[in-house]
Amino acid sequence: MFYSSSGSEKATSVAALISSRYGIKCIDASEGVKPSMILALGGDGFMLDTLRNTMETQIPVYGINCGNVGFLLNKFHPDRLLEDIESASIYTLPVLSAELFDGNGSNVVNAINDCYFLRSHTKAAKLGIMVDGKILAENFVGDGLIISTPTGSTAYNSAVGGAVLSLSSNCIILTGINPFTPKGFKSLVLPRDSTIEVKIHHHDRRPVIAAADAQIFLGVERARISIDKKKTVSALFAASESLHKKIMMAQFR
After folding, report:
1. What is the pLDDT of residues 158-182, one digit of tens each?
2. Which regions of the chain are under pLDDT 70?
3. Together in a domain, 45 and 35
4. In the prediction, which pLDDT does 32 show?
5. Based on the domain organization, do 150 and 88 belong to the same domain?
6. CATH of the domain at 78
């Protein structure tokens, strides 16, 4: 077991404490040894980065909240850290695959929470949306779109009024950000195996920012998003920090 730190003041303090009290070393000192797990010391963004970095090795990650919200993280109890880890349940979380196309070709990126398209101009974004090869909206006009996993449905999606999905729902959700047209469009819950295609109309005059878990991409002209059937990530939550319960309670915030 090793730790990885975001480098923030609080994360650095926690790292020093667990190193001196429990002998847990930084991942940089692993010297090629595959850890049984990694303690991620930081905020939700750092936890997402750590999960993506362990996607290929499938090393489980136990996050310790050294940030603000800490939805994907566990509270730090210095005197019972090992007990919390021992009580932890492992959650296998789905991963989105986003193929982004621009003038130079395409790039495939992964996201655990969400992929979104947000206008980066005073003009509204104008998007074409297809689901499984069928046109959903030829001309969506608004600030943008979010495609979220159940885990990510509690984040940006929820903030703009999208539904929070149960972790066991086997669904993804497509939510509009301040839609102007279609007037009645807010969000759409889709089967997990759906493929969503987004075309940015007039991308030169109405550019958007494309993001995958805050990985930012500019100049995107179209995109194809679906659940990656070959990739998952593993997150650990102490008995007192059930992710199922967190998501359930997020529906009543």
Report:
1. 999 999 999 888 999 999 999 999 9
2. 29-31, 253
3. yes
4. 72
5. no
6. 3.40.50.10330
Give residue for tokens 């980065």: 49
Beta strand pairing status for 222-237 and 61-65? parallel
Pairing assessment for the beta strands 125-131 and 105-111 based on DSSP bridges: unpaired
What pLDDT does 253 receive?
67
* Cross-strand bridge partners of residue 120: none
Q: What is the pTM of this model?
A: 0.91
Query: Residues 44, 49, 84, 213: which is the catalytic one?
Result: 44
- Residue 87 has which token pair? 């009580």
> What pLDDT does residue 69 have?
86
Assess contact for 248 and 74: CB atoms under 8 A.
no
Quote the pLDDT of residue 242: 85
Decide if 49 is catalytic: no
CB 217 within 8 A of CB 209: yes
- The predicted pLDDT at position 184 comes to 81
How far, in Å, CA of 28 to CA of 67, rounded?
22
Using CA atoms, how far apart are residues 147 and 187, in angstroms rounded to an integer? 10
DSSP calls for 114-177: EEEEEE-SSSPEEEEEEETTEEEEEEEEEEEEEEE-TTGGGTHHHHTTPPPPPTTS-EEEEEEE
* pLDDT at residue number 66: 95
Q: Assign residue 120 a region (left: φ > 0; alpha: ψ between -120 and 50; beta: otherwise).
A: alpha
Same domain for 129 and 178: yes
Task: From 33, 31, 47, select the one nearest 91 (Cα to Cα).
Answer: 47
Q: Which two tokens stand for residue 207?
A: 């550019």
